[in-house]
Amino acid sequence: MKRHHSGPFVLNARDIVLHPGEMREFRVDVPAPEKWGEGLVSIPEGESVLVEGRLESVHEGILVSGVVETDYSGVCGRCLTEITEPVEVEFQELFAYPGEEATDFEVQDDHVDLETLVRDATVLALPFQPVCQPDCPGLDPATGERLAVSTEPEQRMPVDTRWAALQEYTPDHDDEQRA
Ligand SMILES: [Zn+2]
Q: Ligand 1 mean position to 81 CA, how many Å?
């Protein structure tokens, strides 16, 4: 079956195909064509995906290397707060010229389609246990409420301060009355 050479991540490499040693830089900035990833966080459909890199013509095909920059969204694995964080991942793959050996990635009609490559590299870089902050305390097992960080010391401190102030104030007040 002949594939259609269209799609957001399809690059035309006609100018360097079969010219080993030639290389060209590329930049693609497109919305994710679908949701990428099935975990707690994923790349939402329509999220901006920036791919910058270069195509190098080698004897076996076109070597594609680059960096993906995008944002993932989802929920914190501990407290379920919604989070959106940037993710950046490098990739490199050889798109071979069609031959006798079957390969995962092939140059087809002088084009390379980076979509599967970019998607897989990005999904692999997503955190398996995402957190809203490194020391997220999670949810209270009894109430299901989100626990705040360092609740107890913060609640005790003002009480201590007030008592200290009263203790200092009282003797002065007594002195004033006597004067
Ligand atoms: Zn959290």
A: 6
- What digits encode the pLDDT tens for the residues 62-96? 999 999 999 999 999 999 999 999 999 999 999 99
Ligand 1 mean position to 120 CA, how many Å?
Answer: 26
Measured CA to CA, the distance from residue 163 to residue 138 in angstroms comes to 33
pLDDT digits (tens, 9 = 90+) for 160-171: 555 555 555 445
| Residue 40 alpha carbon to ligand 1 centre in Å | 12
Ligand 1 centroid to Cα of residue 144, in Å, is 13
Q: In this model, does residue 155 exceed pLDDT 60? A: no
Residues in the chain: 179
Contacts of 70 (CB under 8 A, 6+ apart): 32, 43, 47, 48, 49, 50, 86, 87, 122
Cα 102 to ligand 1 centre (Å): 45
Q: How close is the Cα of 134 to the center of ligand 1, in Å?
A: 8
Which residues fall within 8 angstroms of residue 99, CB to CB, at 6 or more apart? none
> What are the residue ranges spanned by the domains of the chain?
10-125, 149-179
